[in-house]
Amino acid sequence: MITGSWISQVIVVIWLMNIGKISVIDPLTEEDSGNYTCIITSRGMTSSYTTTLDVLVPPVWKLMPIDLDTVSGDNVVLNCQGSGQPPPIVKWHKTTSQNSDFIPVTTQVQLNGSLVLNEISKEDEGMYRCNISNGIGTPLVKSVIIRVIGTNVDIRSFSDLSNLVIDPLTEEDTGNYTCVVNARGMTTSYTTTLTVLVPPSWSNVPHDTDALNGDPVILNCKGSGTPKPSITWSRTHGENMDFTILSSSNDLNILSNGSLHFNSISKKR
Ligand SMILES: *[C@@H]1O[C@H](CO)[C@@H](O)[C@H](O)[C@H]1NC(C)=O
Ligand SMILES: *[C@@H]1O[C@H](CO)[C@@H](O)[C@H](O)[C@H]1NC(C)=O
Ligand SMILES: *[C@@H]1O[C@H](CO)[C@@H](O)[C@H](O)[C@H]1NC(C)=O
Ligand SMILES: *[C@@H]1O[C@H](CO)[C@@H](O)[C@H](O)[C@H]1NC(C)=O
Ligand SMILES: *[C@@H]1O[C@H](CO)[C@@H](O)[C@H](O)[C@H]1NC(C)=O
């Protein structure tokens, strides 16, 4: 009779050659990974063979990121960790609004998978998605929303009253503010919209332009503000200093971004 045995740090399976039994580790777990050596002894002769068993394990959550409300200037850590075999890779993506695409975030990602946002600012606000994958099973995906309130916001609470004070007020304070009242286990809330009005300011000032007869010409004119400023173009004719308001025609076009576009400029007009 030839007897053989499989030896590893974890298990020893006795294997009887003449019965032709195949050893099965059931259930197989991650700890069963390792080197297995088969030693065969026959008539005083010993021979062995070693093989490696890698047990593949789909990722499972260790640390899941959560939604956070932060104050501008805070140092924020978003944790995202999983285990699995092979060890999973953590990837982060970010989007700033519902209709824009997720873009990869790499610079602030640590070796442990956490995303570190030092001195958080309004630009860091948005939805962050963490994706843990190792090519086995389905990736683990969790999206969280990070909100940033400015340092100009102060909440002053009294026994029967709470005030939200915003000072100084900036355009970024525009938004919906919700006041939540808890009393004897009952919760009620009220939301109000704050729109910060901002007078127009230049973002693109048109400048004097020289052009050749027949050239296409674009004159840019752009401003920002809340509500969005409207743009009108007007011109004077010859010596007459009275301005007439322009509208799109065959020769010129007022583009949706406010720029004035001539297909082909002409001295005569
Ligand atoms: C298995 O053997 C290989 C090759 O000798 C070695 O590199 C590896 O570290 C071993 N694995 C374990 C879990 O002992
Ligand atoms: C990951 O590393 C960062 C930076 O070293 C640290 O701030 C964070 O706490 C770590 N996360 C975990 C879950 O240990
Ligand atoms: C997560 O990452 C894996 C591997 O890169 C990719 O195949 C998968 O599409 C990603 N899932 C999401 C929801 O981004
Ligand atoms: C505020 O709430 C209104 C009504 O629910 C919604 O239309 C608007 O988009 C919200 N504004 C912001 C900045 O979230
Ligand atoms: C406005 O749009 C035109 C055509 O798309 C472009 O050439 C021009 O640079 C734009 N102006 C500004 C200020 O973005």
Automatic annotation (TrEMBL):
<dbReference type="GO" id="GO:0070593">
    <property type="term" value="P:dendrite self-avoidance"/>
</dbReference>
<keyword id="KW-0732">Signal</keyword>
<dbReference type="GO" id="GO:0007411">
    <property type="term" value="P:axon guidance"/>
</dbReference>
<dbReference type="GO" id="GO:0007417">
    <property type="term" value="P:central nervous system development"/>
</dbReference>
<dbReference type="Pfam" id="PF13927">
    <property type="entry name" value="Ig_3"/>
</dbReference>
<dbReference type="InterPro" id="IPR036179">
    <property type="entry name" value="Ig-like_dom_sf"/>
</dbReference>
<dbReference type="InterPro" id="IPR003598">
    <property type="entry name" value="Ig_sub2"/>
</dbReference>
<feature type="signal peptide">
    <location>
        <begin position="1"/>
        <end position="24"/>
    </location>
</feature>
<protein>
    <submittedName>
        <fullName>Titin</fullName>
    </submittedName>
</protein>
<feature type="domain" description="Ig-like">
    <location>
        <begin position="200"/>
        <end position="269"/>
    </location>
</feature>
<dbReference type="InterPro" id="IPR013783">
    <property type="entry name" value="Ig-like_fold"/>
</dbReference>
<dbReference type="Pfam" id="PF00047">
    <property type="entry name" value="ig"/>
</dbReference>
<keyword id="KW-0393">Immunoglobulin domain</keyword>
<dbReference type="InterPro" id="IPR003599">
    <property type="entry name" value="Ig_sub"/>
</dbReference>
<feature type="domain" description="Ig-like">
    <location>
        <begin position="58"/>
        <end position="146"/>
    </location>
</feature>
<dbReference type="InterPro" id="IPR007110">
    <property type="entry name" value="Ig-like_dom"/>
</dbReference>
<dbReference type="GO" id="GO:0030424">
    <property type="term" value="C:axon"/>
</dbReference>
<dbReference type="InterPro" id="IPR013151">
    <property type="entry name" value="Immunoglobulin_dom"/>
</dbReference>
<dbReference type="GO" id="GO:0007156">
    <property type="term" value="P:homophilic cell adhesion via plasma membrane adhesion molecules"/>
</dbReference>
<dbReference type="GO" id="GO:0005886">
    <property type="term" value="C:plasma membrane"/>
</dbReference>
<dbReference type="GO" id="GO:0098632">
    <property type="term" value="F:cell-cell adhesion mediator activity"/>
</dbReference>
